[in-house]
Amino acid sequence: MAAESSGESASPESPKKAPGRPFAKGKSGNPGGRAAWRDELVGQLKDAAPDALDRLLLLSRGQAAGGKRPGVKEQLRAIELILSHTLGKPRERVELSGPEGGPVQVQAGIDVNLDLLSTGELRKMRDKLLAGASWEEAWGASGRAAVPALGPPNDGEGE
């Protein structure tokens, strides 16, 4: 259908395009090339970079730039920009901990004792899960009638 809308015929004689090669051999996908204004803008920015760096250095030293002394916020921001673009941004550390600073406890979302299943039942479930089945579908493949409740595992409280 797409061949018809583009004016090409879908006949067996027409060459097939290889995957990842949407354009005919020797033809550019961007015949106009990159826009000239982009190169011009990049050139202008590069020309202005030394002046911008000089101003940034003045701001970081707390010196007057354009007749106005920078505030502490502007001075710190200038320092931050200089350091992050020369030394790189510092790594952020994220610490995860459980209750009262202890280890993180991971709980399964299904409360079921797999020891109660036979090897055959477990294999059927494994095969279903590997094939992309949901937990309920895999449990049904085990031959058991009732699907256990989904949710946090029983922690032993209330028994």
What is the secondary structure topology, with strand pairs?
Layout lengths: L1 H4 L30 H25 L11 H15 L32 H12 L4 H7 L18
What labels describe this entry?
159 residues, disordered C terminus, flat, mainly alpha
What is the structure about, briefly put?
The chain is mainly alpha-helical. It has helices at 2-5, 36-60, 72-86, 119-130, 135-141.
Structure, described:
This protein is mostly helical. It has helices at residues 2-5, 36-60, 72-86, 119-130, 135-141. The radius of gyration is 33 Å and the shape is flat.
* Distance separating the two termini: 65 Å
Largest sheet: number of strands, sense, barrel closure: none
- The helix/strand order is HHHHH
Low-confidence stretches: 1-10, 150-159
